[in-house]
Specification:
Number of strands: 2
Radius of gyration: 18 Å
Structural class: mainly alpha
Distance between the termini: 49 Å
Order of helices and strands: HHHHHHEEHH
Helix content: over 70%
Strand order of the largest sheet: 1-2
Number of helices: 8
Oligomer: single chain
Strand content: under 5%
Length: about 240
């Protein structure tokens, strides 16, 4: 199988380009149960990190966010299957950053965290139900959505730079009465929701193609990134809405 929707997963599913241990009969085959059980474990580590982050100073949280971002990029572009250590380490560090951001948001906008968590859960369940009824990610659409995602990340960095040097929040610019940050954030939520579908599609394709269980943590990492993305962007959009 050479046509996974996710190019990172695709390199590892291709028996001609993947490294030993990701394909074939030398190791146990991947199952949905493998991915599900590891996903719950990763979620537990993420929550544990968030509980810690809820109570730490923002300075520590900022360091955690920087480390999580760097580690996340390294894992995304790593060409070999991920292991439990790297994924769970990322989950804890990212959890610390998310917990601190959530605490700060909750202090300023009471109820916003519950709303963001509820929205993320609803999005996940809607995609899961749609997937169960046959909806699948399309590789061409995935490439377009991927480019949109990277463009949005670039926008965030530019906005951060402008805010640091001028104190101006580009997201507060009004477009037909709606903050630009809310508009772009809503699009970003859609990107994240689509990538949850991509992750479900990749997991199913990997299982049906006879991939090794060594690929499970890579798939878990991808799904975790998509869910975190949706939560962060929902939190961002709601902060603009709450601010009004």
């Amino acid at each position: 199988m050479k046509n996974s929707s996710n190019p990172v997963i695709n390199r590892q599913l291709d028996p001609e380009t993947s490294l030993p241990g990701t394909w074939g009969a030398n190791t146990a085959p991947l199952t949905v149960g493998n991915v599900a059980s590891k996903s719950w474990l990763a979620l537990a580590f993420l929550i544990a990190g968030a509980v810690i982050g809820w109570h730490v100073p923002m300075g520590i949280a900022a360091v955690a966010a920087i480390i999580a971002f760097g580690l996340g990029l390294f894992l995304v572009f790593r060409s070999t299957p991920l292991g439990a250590g790297s994924v769970l380490t990322y989950a804890v560090i990212e959890g610390v950053a998310l917990g601190a951001v959530s605490a700060a948001s909750q202090a300023k906008y009471p109820g916003i965290v519950v709303a963001a968590l509820s929205g993320t859960l609803i999005a996940f369940l809607v995609v899961l139900i749609a997937f169960m009824f046959g909806l699948r990610a399309n590789p061409k659409i995935t490439r377009i959505v991927g480019l949109m995602g990277w463009a949005y990340v670039a926008y965030l960095f530019v906005s951060l730079g402008i805010a640091m040097f001028t104190g101006f929040d580009t997201g507060s610019v009004s477009v037909m009465g709606i903050p630009l940050g809310a508009i772009l954030g809503s699009i970003a939520v859609g990107i994240g929701v689509y990538y949850i579908l991509v992750d479900f599609t990749d997991i199913t394709q990997a299982v049906h193609s006879g991939a090794s269980e060594n690929l499970a943590w890579t798939l878990v990492f991808g799904l975790m990134l998509s869910i975190i993305w949706v939560y962060i962007e929902l939190l961002r959009v709601l902060r603009y809405v709450w601010g009004d």
